[in-house]
Amino acid sequence: MKKILYVLLLTVSISFAQNEEKQRIDQLKNQLEILATEVSGLNEVYETEISATNLTLSNLLRGVADIHNLNINPSQELDNKNISPSFPSVIVSDLLIFLCKEYSLTIDFTGTIMAVKPFVREVEKPQERIIPVTYYPSNNTISIDAKGDKLYDVFKLIMDKSGKNLVFSPGLENNSLIAYIQETPFDAAMENLAFANNLYVEKSKDGFYLFEDNSPTVATNTNGSGVTQPKQRPQRRRNSNFFFKIIDKEQQLVEVDFINTPIADIINDIGNELNINIFTATPLNEAGYATFKAKHITFDNLLIKLFETTTVINDTDPNNGSNPSRNPTTGTAPSIPKQFSYKKENNIYYFGTVDQLSIQEVAVIKLRHRTIELLSDPSGGFSSRSAGRNSFSSNRNFGRNSSINNFDSNGNRDFQGTQRSYGDSGSEPIDPNTLSLKSIIPAQLTNPLKIQEDYELNSFYVTGPSAAIQRFREFIEQIDKPIPLIQIEVMILEVSKTSTVEAGVSWGIGEEPTTTQGGIYPETDLTLGANTINKVISGFNGFGSLNLGRVVPNFFATIKAMESNGDLKIRSTPRLSTLNGHRAYFSNGQTSYYAITDQAIIGSDNPVTQTATNYVPIDAELGLTIKPTVSGDGQVTLDISVIQSSFGNRISEDAPPDINSREFSSLVRMKDQDIAVLGGLEEQSRSNSGSGVPFLARIPIIKWLFSKRVREGKKAKLTVLIKPTVIY
Description:
The chain is about 20% helix and about 40% strand. By secondary structure, it is an alpha+beta fold. The strands form twelve sheets. Strands 27, 28, 29, 30, 31, 36 and 37 form a seven-stranded antiparallel sheet that branches. Strands 32-33-34-35 form a four-stranded antiparallel sheet, with no helix packed on it.
């Protein structure tokens, strides 16, 4: 294909030259024809036969001029041109035309004088080139057509047209620029202009475009012998939207500002300025792009953020829609995305994908305050009194929805099914395999890592990318804090008051005479026999005509007048300690038993009845469960559940006793070492009963001789005082 193009170009060039020569000869012919009207010798026939060797053109022309009386002045340059003509018969004008054509001659006409000399093509004086540069301020685009123009001229014209400031390093002003750009955004146009001419461009903060030579062979320094030394690492052309500044080289503190910049460029440029050692296991041009701006950030933290946000490459380049990891030579893209990371070891930075051994690390992370195994929050306390009993379960539920008694379908209380648990209602046993601190760590931190727990050394063994391990270590340091210990002082006060008043007189006749007996003080409970009553009656018989008579020997009278008061106080002061977020449980109670008799008939021909009696335990207790939670401002939230149960009467000796119970739950928030008063479990009862003789029992004063009255009052109150103390 190229050969064909060369042939076509050569053919066109030859054709163009031939046309130009033909035009020149035709022009000479026309001028000779015009001159022949005045000089007849041009139309004469040159009949003399010329046959000579080494005859010069000047001699030939002089001979023709002499014979035909023509004014021909041959140039001295024709003395050096030999000719061996043979013209038996030819017109003079045709001979002159032939010589001009054959030997590239030309004729200058001055009247009838013809000056013959070699033809020299006039060289056109080159016109001053106007470099096509057009700037469009409406959309900030520019068009450039540079063809070997000087850098100074092109930059000056660009600055004049656009008003932008372009600065170049010394020595570049005479460099030739070649670029053809059509209506391209100004920043992209400057970047491509630099790229096409092996330059390096950077846009400063104040808007200047700084151009430097990016040639790998430019001399950077000289040694003692004066021999120039080439650059060891040529600078890469920096993107116009990539800016960074080294603030502290020793601490690797930098200022960065870049938008959609390749991560490979960021690492290479900043790393080159910081003079760090870099090992790359996989080309970083497959790591994708990033946008970042920070006034003060260390290089290590910058790498962490870069690979946190852009570890998996995108399918498209945010600038031009092409694959960011596309190979610039072959134009092919990788088949699968790659996740990149890095590792710092012995002041060497290793970069590559997360599955490469060069960036892998094995670390032992030991906890100082917390434990690898999470301490389980027990779902409740299990009474030791019921441990090991297979026939009865004494799990107690002190939650808000707990039920003290269970009933069967007939409405009978089912004591065997009674279950009380001091944990949250409906809680299931926790799988021991999940009781690890690892289970509460976010998956984003553990996903690329392999983590094993060592419960004996209280440590994590972590394998994976170094950057991911560092993030995991920092997270562990944040949560490895001393867990607050809450000491809970509890005071349980139970006050019970009783009051009983009994008064009245009862009369009756017994089977046998009754002996006078009983107490008078402080309680009056006196039984009077017939003899004593008759003596009292005899004392009244002496007053005038009053005669009350006598009572029969079996007569008796009972006089009661007594009042009793009771004041019972029970004080329990348990002290509990538990970790933040874990439950503390206290229980104090009593166990009673009741009998269950089972009968079984064995055999069919001679049945034998077997009877078995089992004694089943049942508990009554004072139970307390508290779950404290310490907030960030030092306040304590307490989830409290209290239950108090006691035995009542039995309907029979082998029947289970009645259970009287009181319970409450509360959720309070208080300051450290404040005291919370929880009360309200108050019980009051009053009873006023009596008996007497109809009508007489209602007559004032004498009613006490014909009636009996009993008044009872009872009051009980349970109060709980709680004081939490946080110990760090």
